[in-house]
Specification:
The chain is 41% helix and 23% strand. The longest helix has 18 residues.
Length: 128
């Protein structure tokens, strides 16, 4: 199953998503500390990063762009989420592979994670 790293300021949301997604077979790690995001990515090597756009003190879209500019994190599949449809409008301009609007139905979240991850894997060049 897909190994996720979820980033959000809300520890309640992180706990609920972790519990639900693990019951559905995902491997889930969470963090509310966006300042150590690259460390978490390096240590956990997730298949997909699911990140809120509005993090305290930081814009998730800007973080996404920085991850895309760094050769060590560039190949990571990234999905953004937000309660603001306006904030999600141009998610691809920041380098994200997908997005979902909050509040989301949990089944829709799983479907979107699987869809984005599948499309991401199919679009990558084959490694020799």
């Amino acid at each position: 199953m897909i190994k996720l790293l979820i980033v959000d300021d809300s520890t309640d949301l992180l706990s609920a998503l972790k519990m639900f997604l693990e019951k559905k077979g995902f491997t889930v790690n969470t963090t509310s500390d966006h300042r150590r995001l690259k460390d978490h990515i390096r240590q956990l090597n997730p298949d997909l990063l699911l990140m809120d756009i509005f993090l305290s003190g930081q814009d998730g879209r800007v973080l996404c762009r920085k991850l895309r500019e760094d050769k060590n994190t560039q190949p990571l599949c990234i999905m953004l989420f937000s309660a603001s449809p306006e904030a999600l409008k141009n998610y691809k301009n920041y380098g994200a592979d997908g997005c979902i609007q909050k509040p989301f139905n949990l089944k829709d979240l799983i479907d979107q994670i699987e869809f984005v991850h599948h499309n991401y894997l199919s679009s990558r060049p084959e490694e020799n």
